[in-house]
Amino acid sequence: MRCFTDPIYHLNTRLQFSADTSVHAKVQDVQHIYDQYAGMLMGYIYDVVKDHKMAEQYLADIFIAVAAIPDVLKTTDENIYCKLQLLARKKLTSYFDTVKECDVNETVKNRPNKFLSSMNTRQLTVFCGIHYHGKNVTAIAAEMNEEEDTVRRLLKEAFLIIRRSNDAGVH
Amino acid sequence: MMQEYINSGILEAYVLGCASQQEVQEVLSMKEKHPEVKDALLALEDDMEKLAASMAIEPPANLWPKIADEINEITMREPLKPQIYREQPKQNTETDNKSQYIDIESEATHMRIHKAWRWVFAAVFVLGKIFLGFAIYYYLENRQMNEQMNELKTELKQLKSTQ
Question: Both A73 and A45 in a single domain?
């Protein structure tokens, strides 16, 4: 049995304490991000999967994955929400593959939103196709029988509408 | 030229995560070189965040404790590196590899096992109690039978002696 004055005893205690502290710190870091962004991410995932239980499961998986990232998204010049959204998009890849058709009206009807309702059908098709259905520019261009540059331009317009709607809301 | 690049829609595709690997590399390179591209990206990310905030759904209150438990479990399962040694600069690279490690495992008095084993332990405990109950019951019954046999033997002896 080790004595309390034994240096090895203290070493073990310190290591154990260090491990517990590191786990606690990691959970706290993730919780801080969760408190700020879980609602936004849940909204996005729900709009993709349209099922609360499934959205919760995806949300949990994403934050568990976040814990595995070194320094838990501690960057100052990057938008943490966008990083989380990209992580969500990656997790949803297999789900995107199961969804064949994109009904743009359904997205707007289910959860009316000032940003989406200001877009025309073509802009909505591009934005929803990419954002909520995980498609890429090439796939949408093929579906719409348009050039990829046109799809990118429509995407740009969709973002401008989001910005204008937001500015209008602010002022 | 730069404004043309910003207006091309490639930055929007990058922010939504649908840009190709080549486009991603291109955007990252442009972001490093041109502050106006970096500003445009930050503005687009801000737009996305605002859209998400307007469509947020509050997750149920019991979700975070589940996530925290899972993170704790995963983190504890990972092999832990002693931090105080990790932080030290590398010295004496020629020394024997064995001397760089300290025997920590052998000093630990606790072991970590999977949660599923608690049901096995509970079953063993309950079965143990049942067997103990049976053992006490049969012991008492056996003792009672022995007493009865002794009484019968005594009665038989008394009967024989009276005859």
Answer: yes
Same domain (yes/no): A90, A120: no
Chain A residue whose CA is closest to B107: A12
Which among A132, A88, A86, A91 is positioned nearest to A108, based on CA atoms? Answer: A132
pTM, to two decimals: 0.66
As for how many domains chain A has, the answer is 2
Domain co-membership, A26 together with A94: yes
What value of ipTM does the predicted structure carry? 0.79
Query: pLDDT tens digits for B32-46?
Result: 999 999 999 999 999
Residue A139, domain extent: 100-171
Q: Does the beta-carbon distance from B60 to A162 stay under 8 Å?
A: no
Instruction: Tell me if A43 is assigned to some domain.
Output: yes
- Reference A85, options B24, B68, B56, B17; nearest CA is B17
Q: Is residue A133 within 8 angstroms of chain B, CB to CB?
A: no
- Rounded (10°) CA dihedral B75, B76, B78, B79: 140
* Residue A88 is assigned to a structural domain of this protein: yes
* Closest chain A CA to residue B55: A43
Q: What is the pLDDT of residues B60-119, one digit of tens each?
A: 999 999 998 888 888 777 655 555 555 444 444 444 444 455 555 555 567 777 888 889
